[in-house]
Design a protein that fits this description.
Structural class: alpha/beta
Helix content: 40-55%
Order of helices and strands: EHEHHEEHEHEHEEHEHEH
Oligomer: single chain
Number of strands: 10
Strand order of the largest sheet: 2-1-5-10-9-6-7-8
Largest sheet: 8 strands, parallel
Length: about 325
Amino acid sequence: MTTALITHPAFVGHDTGAGHPERPSRMAAIDKAFSEPAFANLQRHSAPLRDDDAIYIAKAHRPEHLDEIRTFAEHLSSTHKFIDGDTVMSAGSWEAARRAVGAALDGVDLVMTGGVQNVFCQVRPPGHHAESNRAMGFCFFNNVAIAAHYARSKYGAERVAVVDFDVHHGNGTQQIFWNDKDLFYGSTHQMPLFPGTGATREAGVGNVFNAPLRAGDGREPFEAAVRERILAPLHDFAPDLLLISAGFDAHRRDPLGGLQLVEEDFRWVTDVLAETARRHAKGRIVSMLEGGYDLDGLAHSAAAHVSALIEAGG
């Protein structure tokens, strides 16, 4: 079995403007890391524009949300249009957002049909802040939630889990999963921090498991949070498919967070999640890029994450 990488040059075309942290150079930084010999055997795929993407977007988002984003794109009257204070649309954003969804769907196809063991989707814009009816936090569509619904609809997956280690809580994924006992959401994140959600008391219907960390926390609190708040209920849930919201802005170099993780911490969490996937989900993992805004920290962390996926899929 192998590991696949799904990406596309169109992700660079999502122009967020000067000074925006979620910038096109994030893709180039990761591209450079994945050009090293250690990644020569990645099965590389192009993120598609799929004819059926609207069907599956609508399973995670209300129809009016999709219509609103499409309308923004069709009536763009300036170089940059702000959907909210930090979520920016440009001429290339609609294609990039659709290809991010396409990457998520193709990733599920690859692991569910046995084409590969696991997948990393190197995409932007990210997705985990997008709620069912609104874009926010740099995110237009909730790629990982769409992937979860697609796996259920297309492949009959009975239980799908998302584990999110971005420094920011994935409020959108939590909101979309909130009332569905067969969808699991587990998150480590810094708190207090944008978007202000993610307290341990936020539990959905017993399917949401938040593990907030404090600014300055590093390896030991992170590992304890994963083991005590995420892994135990994840094993009980026994997912058919494991999805990862892979945000690397918990790195100690990142300008938008205050956690103190390093590359090896992302390798460690990937290892333990891969073991869980082997135990319950035939090793099937689809990982979606979320945050990570220091370019060196992002590149090295993504490399550590994908190296662990390669080892798991070997």
